Amino acid sequence: MSRSSGFSRIVKIRDLDDGALVKLSKKLGLALSDGEMFQLRDYFRGIGRDPTDVEIQAMAQAWSEHCCYKSSKLYLKKYLSGLRNGSVILAMEDDAGVVAFDDDHAYVLKMESHNHPSAVEPYGGAATGVGGIIRDVLCMGAQPVAILDSLYFGDPEFQGDAKGSHSTKFLASGVVRGIKDYGNRLGIPTVAGSVYFHEGYNRNPLVNAGCVGILEKKNVIRSRASRPGEVLVLIGGGTGRDGIHGVNFASSSLDSENRKSTRSVQLGNPIIEEPLIHAILEMVDANLINGMKDLGGGGLSSAAGEILYAASLSGIIDLDKVHLKDKGMDPWEIWVSESQERMLVTMDPESVKKAQPILKKWDLDSSVIGKVTDGGNLVIQFKGEKVLDLPLEFLTSGPVYARSYHESKPSLTTAIPMETKNYSEFLKNFLSSPNVSSRFRIIREYDRTVRGGTAVSAEVGSPGLGTHSDSAIVVPLPGSRKALILTSGCKVPMVEADPYSGTLASLCEGVRNIICSGGRPHSLVDSLNFGDPEDPEIMGQLVTSLRAIGDFSREFDLPVVSGNVSLYNRSGEVNIPPTPTFMIVGLLEDASKSLSSDFKENGNSIFLLGRILPNLSGSEYLRYFGIQSGAPSPGDLKDLKYLSHLMERLSSRSLVISAHDVSTGGLSVCIAEMCFGNGIGAEVDLSSIYGMRTSVKLFSEAGNAVVVEVPHGREDEFLKECTSLKPLRIGTTGGGMLRINDLEIVIVDSPVKDLMESWNSGLEKILP
Amino acid sequence: MLLVMEGTNCEDEAFRSFSESGFDPKKVHVNELDHTALEDFDAVYLPGGFSAGDYVRAGSLFASRLMASKSAELARFIDEGKPVIGVCNGFQILAESGLIPDVSHHGKREVALASNISNRFECRLIYIRNVGRNRMLSEVAMDPTPVPVAHGEGRVVFSDKSIIEEMKQRGQILFAYSDPDGNTAGYPWNPNGSEENIAGMTNEEGNVIGLMPHPERLYYGYQLPYKLRSGKPTIGKQFFGAVHKYVMKVTA
User: Fold this and answer.
1) Four-residue CA torsion sign, A443, A445, A447, A449
2) Mapping DSSP to helix (H, G, I), strand (E, B) and coil, where does residue B49 land?
3) How far out from the chain centre does Cα A340 lie?
4) What is the pLDDT of residue B53?
5) Which of A127, A357, A500, A744 is deepest in the core (most CB within 10 A)?
6) B106 to chain A nearest CA, in Å?
7) Chain B residues whose beta carbon lies within 8 Å of the beta carbon of residue A185
8) Does the beta carbon of A450 lie under 8 angstroms from any beta carbon of chain B?
9) Residue A252: pLDDT band with limits 50, 70, 90
10) B140 domain-assigned
11) Chain B residue whose CA is closest to A475
């Protein structure tokens, strides 16, 4: 390499042979494939000059899997296009989805992964994951109102290895602290989510963070410039050397070499983001912002490229105008840095002055870094010297791959463990297992009530007791009781056994969580985490999962409004289990009419609504015994649709006063959790559930079933409302014991207090 | 007046609680304090959060910025009997600036809010009861009343044991943590391990009030768990209602 006139270097690639070119890609940390490097060389041969270092770094950034979705784009388009309905305002176009909330307001939603950084530096990785997802919602002009996190960790006993992998305990405690410290400091409540442990995540944990915001419909800000002559303004934290090559790192598998890549992990500072939120929202209210994008993966390179390209405009940018926190940065470093807490906005030139009092009040730095032009090449300058001069189309659109894939057939047979002799003892132990046990150890460290809009968080029931809620309920606007219902998660063992039915099962569980809270599902976003897309089996998992999402969305008329794909979640030879996380948002007209999972009174009737299917595949019960699953049964979508409408009617007439869906752990765990909320026991008889053995009745997670509490004396009204769906009366609430009978045999007979103690002890052992 | 700075994050719900209770609240950033006269306001409220990140001792930076700019005005404001209320981080700020409990009347720091004994951030619903005689809040939360807490540093500790005795004699301990039956109990009913189960306190005159729990987060009945919906007004409604009633009297 030789120096050009001053601030950037010319990288001679036109004369390099294939071998040298591949070496160069490694040396510069570009993470581009051999073919992509050859494509770049061809391009610069074509225009008759070599690229500058800024240009080649910008290309690597823009062409990374993380930024251009080159492996998934084709299939995303095929399966997830056009999944919208009348409520959708923006789907799959901008940085987050926008959906109508009421006549004047819309909610904004997005979920994103922050996996690779969290594997290397769990605290910082998770914290900046939260910061990033909040900015994605903020950049649509919305006030963030809730955070959700779906976390996936390895076997709790995994101790790490010599190649630099951390132990599960270290990763889990770091991730939880990162979310807690960032979310709590920002004052956005972390209200719900999920945690799952599986040996497939030993070296590659997943952190999926979701955020929901609220805004007036007239204030929606697009992720694009509006017109030539606007200025580009960078607001917030200084640009530094942290997070360089983050997206390139996130688009490769984790190996011992790049595990040392702590330089690629950004550093978060919530006390810059907090005033940034206030200032941006005040600027939105004052009508000063035309277009906006947050700076996350890919930094300025990605944000500036996309904000202009989406508008079919171009721009001239002066990198020396960017306010820095590290001295002596090279232009290419400024262009690709992923420093946090920064927003890029396009404004009319006369608005810049009007914004100054707001920025000054909140002590925020800003710089006018360029202007929007009417097409032509994107030009980047540094102290007057041109360091990048390329067509935006070429720079931003990136390659698209039709990667070959293979959809493998799930195995049809499943071994079933012997019937346990002592179910009381087994249930007690099962309740303390990592994936069944109480999540209080984690969720009580998250501030779930800040902003004062939380009606129900991840915990319901009486203080000192308490159980898991199915979803969180947040009232986003003052003066109204209309609420958002929020849930997120993935049925990992089911997707692992069969990506198609497992993906459907994950979506169905989300819907059941919403209807058990008294609301109606309204929209969804996905965060798709898969292994190495260059492996046809893994690509097959992704394509199958996308197909299932498309089928589900059409059947339910539930729009998919935004999403994120994270690939290369592989360490050594091990790919993670396919993990499509879904965040589903529901609506509830009146928060005071919500339902919750805790049994409310003694002497009420317990009914099973919907069907449990006789299939243990993909259940936590089989995983507990280490038995490989066969094909899970996807629940019937038509059944669930009917159940959805029915639950809304039952809840609005107070014919059910508690509801909890049968999911992880099956019916036994579902009923036990309902007992824990207020310490109210139950006497249950499973004899009316036909055609399956006792263990299957207790632990099957297949089908779409919900357990409800019906007030004593209103059973006939309840049954009349249920008509074609035949609910089974399976028991009565009351007392301090959980007693379960099947075919005249007492199979469980335990004090609720003992079961609850065991349930609460599970995570305490992992996160002491 | 709701006073905020970067990291203050409970001002929206406090704003709403004041508005719903009949006030016309205004948010003021500490950067705007030099151009703001306290006498234009009927009450000063310091919301919760992590002012300036709380990377130094919780509340200390906010306290020093507040006192640097307004200590004399604030003293006059308090002498006039107008309320100064701090919740959570706001309580920490009042403690750091020596405005509370101020048994010595010298504005010294006499109480600190240390890390919770669990060493964890504690976000839960707990119970408090009213144990003091306060001109503003004596009618609030006579029975054990549910209220949310959310803090990592809320354990009240004193620089000198004699301060507790002084406070008891003068009725300056306002709220105490209890179990659902009103009995004082240790952790987890006392979420942070505070001495004497103290959840909130006042100055001797009773118009400077600091508390760790968040009444502003529980204003509407639907925010309570089903079993605790008694039909009585929530702690938020009672608390801010009582402050409004008091202010009407003082400024009449």
Assistant:
1) positive
2) strand
3) 19
4) 67
5) A127
6) 32
7) 7, 9, 49-50, 53-54
8) yes
9) confident
10) no
11) B223
Question: Domain locations in chain A?
Answer: 2-62
Q: Do A450 and B222 touch (CB under 8 A)?
A: no
A361, A444, A452 member nearest B31 (Cβ): A361
Alpha-carbon distance A205 to A301, whole Å?
28
**Lowest mean pLDDT across A44-48, A62-66, A624-628, A645-649:** A62-66
Query: Tens digits of per-residue pLDDT, A286-325?
Result: 999 999 999 988 889 999 999 999 999 999 999 999 999 8
Residue of A nearest to B150 (CA): A447
Q: Please tell me whether residue B205 adopts helix, strand or coil conformation.
A: coil
| CATH number assigned to the domain comprising residue B19 | 3.40.50.880
Question: Is the pLDDT assigned to residue A6 strictly greater than 80?
Answer: no
Q: Which residues contact A350 (CB under 8 A, 6 or more apart)?
A: none
| Active-site residue flag, A66 | yes
Helix (H, G, I), strand (E, B) or coil at A509: helix
Give B136-151 as a DSSP string: TTTTTT-S-EEEEEEE
Q: How far, in Å, CA of A738 to CA of A752, rounded?
A: 6
Tens-place pLDDT, residues B40-64? 999 999 999 887 666 666 778 888 8
Report residue B227: phi and psi, to 5°.
-65, -20
The pair of three-digit structure tokens given for residue B6, joined into one six-digit string: 């970067």
Instruction: Please provide the size of chain B in residues.
Output: 252
Whole-number CA gyration radius for chain A: 27
Poorest-pLDDT segment among A171-185, A254-268, A561-575, A739-753: A254-268
How many domains does the structure of chain B reveal? 1
Q: Is pLDDT of A544 > 50?
A: yes
Report the predicted TM-score, pTM, of the whole model to 2 decimal places.
Answer: 0.95
Q: Which CATH number fits domain A2-62: 1.20.950.20, 3.90.79.10, 3.10.20.30, 1.10.8.750?
A: 1.10.8.750
Residue-wise pLDDT for B167-207, tens only, equals: 999 999 999 999 999 998 899 999 999 999 999 999 999 99
Of B7, B124, B223, the CB nearest to A444: B124
pLDDT at A1: 36
Answer yes or no: do A447 and B150 touch at CB < 8 A.
yes
Phi-psi region of A45 (alpha: psi -120 to 50; beta: other; left: phi over 0): alpha
Which 8-state DSSP code applies to residue B216? G
The whole-chain average pLDDT of chain A stands at: 93
> Which residues on chain B are in Cβ contact (under 8 Å) with A459?
124
Does B48 reside within a domain? Answer: yes
Q: How far apart are CA A297 and CA A243, in angstroms?
A: 9
* H helix intervals, A48-165: 53-62, 65-68, 73-80, 115-120, 122-138
Catalytic residue of the set A105, A114, A198, A245:
A114
CA–CA separation, A475 and A451 (whole Å) = 10
- Reference A638, options A508, A471, A503, A485; nearest CA is A508
Model pLDDT, residue A434: 97
State the count of interchain CB pairs (< 8 A) between A and B: 127
Instruction: Measure the CA–CA gap between A743 and A213, rounded to whole angstroms.
Output: 50
> Is B192 contained in some domain?
no
In the numeric block, the tokens 């009913």 are attached to: B189
Domain region containing B31: 2-116+147-165+203-250
Over residues A579-598, the pLDDT tens digits come to: 999 999 999 999 999 999 99
**B181: in domain:** no
Distance, in Å, from the CA atom of B118 to the CA atom of A52, rounded to the nearest integer, reads 55
Q: Is A117 in a helix, a strand, or coil?
A: helix
pLDDT category at A2 given cuts 50, 70, 90 is: very low
**What digits encode the pLDDT tens for the residues A102-112?**
999 999 999 99
A39 in Cβ contact with A21 (< 8 Å): no
Rounded to 10 deg, the angle between the A752-766 and A168-186 helix axes is 100
